[in-house]
């Protein structure tokens, strides 16, 4: 016993041991509440246990299907760990206001890196000019300006649609793409500013842009070394837009276009980059949606007959040449069933996911959503919520009769154009151009579909 007391006495003579014995209880007293507090925080249920990779492999195979599978397993709020990122999904309509309106989330920070990767726009330039670019596009494509833009598109669409011929068999997407690409580019950029008049030059542009668009989703995340062909097309397009900007700066135009407004808004070194991004925004969504509208309409003879009757009441019976057909913005307002078809196609074939970055932790449904997470919302699945859209998987244009479209009010729960401060700035122009193109096609052509309506591909964008 005396020896034990002696050993303890010797321990107290060692400063390091004395320090440790004094500090350890103090450390426990300070850190335990912090640790316990963190343990008490409830984070959303999570999938993806593999370090860094998470569930990227399963997610990448069929993103939309995997999102819905995760919702069923984990509940209305859940997190997917994908390639070093935490993607936290909200899936119930009651929580969407938080996604769009919370001051704890940020749209610009969510999209800055994808913008840099796909258009080579620096972080500094993006944050300095993004809001001004958004507001410029919103102003240039606002409803009061649509009458003039509609008249230009009417002429351009007529020129392109006459090239379809009278009888034939072709790929509908290719026909729509070529007709709309040329028309929209000439309208928003100026007559032949881009290579739309020379067949060989245009085909080269189309090939590069289609490749750029097809792999755009991968380009937002993957290094260009893994996307060599995509990177080559991106650089080709940037060189083209650099030459366009250089030429247009020296021109004096009485009728300036959206391109010229953008050039004046952004810093000069990045003007070609913003021009590329603007063209992508103008073409990437409008063309596929137009294709789907036509597919849905021509696959349902009852709907087609109703639209034909509506068209005849507004612009007269068939017989006019397309170059003599003048459909105004006012005429389009008198074609509600056509607009219902467009919006219903947008509902069914709109964006897969939209995102915000969490800048400050907040609580949702009892879960702590930590700062740094990417907050995700899937319009694709939100539009298939049977509580909001009965018979959600069916193409039912008549459901839009309940929307007050005369006041530009969509159905509750419709999210394809986003929400909040940075709602899609070109949505009214986009709806107008699709309505106009579809009206002209229906007026002029009898189309027979060679197969059933194709299934949608499971992608996020």
TrEMBL record:
Family, similarity comment: Belongs to the cytochrome P450 family.
Record-level Gene Ontology MF annotations: heme binding; iron ion binding; oxidoreductase activity, acting on paired donors, with incorporation or reduction of molecular oxygen; steroid hydroxylase activity
Source species: Ridgeia piscesae (Tubeworm)
Keyword Oxidoreductase: no
UniProt binding sites for heme: 424
Residues that span the membrane, as ranges: 16-35, 274-298
InterPro entries: CYP450_sterol_14alpha_dmase, Cyt_P450, Cyt_P450_E_grp-IV, Cyt_P450_sf
Protein name: 24-hydroxycholesterol 7-alpha-hydroxylase
């Amino acid at each position: 016993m005396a020896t034990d007391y002696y050993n303890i006495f010797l321990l107290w003579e060692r400063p390091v041991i004395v320090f440790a014995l004094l500090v350890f209880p103090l450390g426990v007293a300070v850190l335990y509440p912090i640790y316990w507090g963190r343990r008490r925080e409830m984070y959303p249920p999570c999938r993806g246990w593999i370090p860094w990779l998470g569930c990227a492999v399963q997610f990448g195979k069929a993103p939309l299907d995997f999102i819905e599978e995760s919702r069923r397993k984990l509940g209305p709020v859940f997190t997917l760990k994908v390639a070093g990122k935490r993607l936290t999904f909200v899936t119930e309509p009651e929580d969407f206001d938080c996604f769009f309106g919370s001051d704890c989330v940020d749209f610009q920070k969510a999209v800055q890196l994808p913008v840099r990767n796909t258009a080579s726009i620096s972080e500094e330039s993006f944050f300095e000019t993004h809001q001004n670019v958004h507001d410029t596009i919103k102003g240039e494509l606002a409803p009061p300006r649509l009458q003039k833009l509609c008249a230009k598109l009417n002429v351009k669409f007529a020129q392109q649609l006459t090239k379809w011929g009278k009888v034939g068999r072709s790929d509908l997407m290719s026909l729509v793409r070529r007709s709309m690409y040329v028309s929209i580019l000439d309208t928003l950029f100026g007559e032949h500013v881009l290579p739309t008049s020379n067949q060989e030059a245009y085909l080269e542009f189309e090939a590069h842009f289609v490749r750029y668009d097809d792999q755009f989703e991968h380009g937002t995340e993957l290094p260009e070394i893994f996307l060599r062909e995509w990177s080559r097309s991106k650089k080709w397009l940037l060189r083209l837009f650099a030459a366009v900007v250089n030429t247009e700066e020296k021109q004096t135009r009485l009728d300036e276009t959206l391109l010229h407004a953008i050039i004046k808004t952004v810093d000069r070194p990045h003007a070609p980059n913003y021009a590329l991004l603007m063209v992508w925004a103008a073409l990437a969504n409008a063309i596929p949606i137009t294709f789907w509208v036509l597919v849905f309409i021509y696959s349902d003879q009852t709907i087609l007959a109703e639209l034909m009757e509506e068209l005849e009441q507004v612009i007269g019976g068939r017989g006019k040449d397309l170059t003599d057909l003048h459909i105004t913005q006012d005429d389009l307002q008198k074609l509600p069933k056509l607009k219902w078809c467009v919006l219903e196609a947008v509902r069914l074939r709109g964006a897969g996911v939209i995102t915000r970055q969490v800048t400050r932790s907040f609580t949702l449904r009892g879960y702590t959503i930590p700062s740094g997470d990417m907050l995700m919302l899937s319009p694709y699945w939100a539009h298939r919520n049977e509580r909001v859209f009965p018979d959600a998987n069916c193409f039912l244009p008549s459901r839009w009769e309940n929307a007050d479209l005369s006041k530009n009010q969509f159905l509750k729960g419709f999210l394809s154009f986003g929400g909040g401060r940075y709602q899609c700035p070109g949505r009214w122009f986009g709806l107008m151009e699709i309505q106009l193109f579809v009206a002209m096609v229906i007026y002029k052509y009898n189309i027979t579909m060679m197969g059933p309506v194709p299934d949608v591909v499971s992608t996020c964008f």
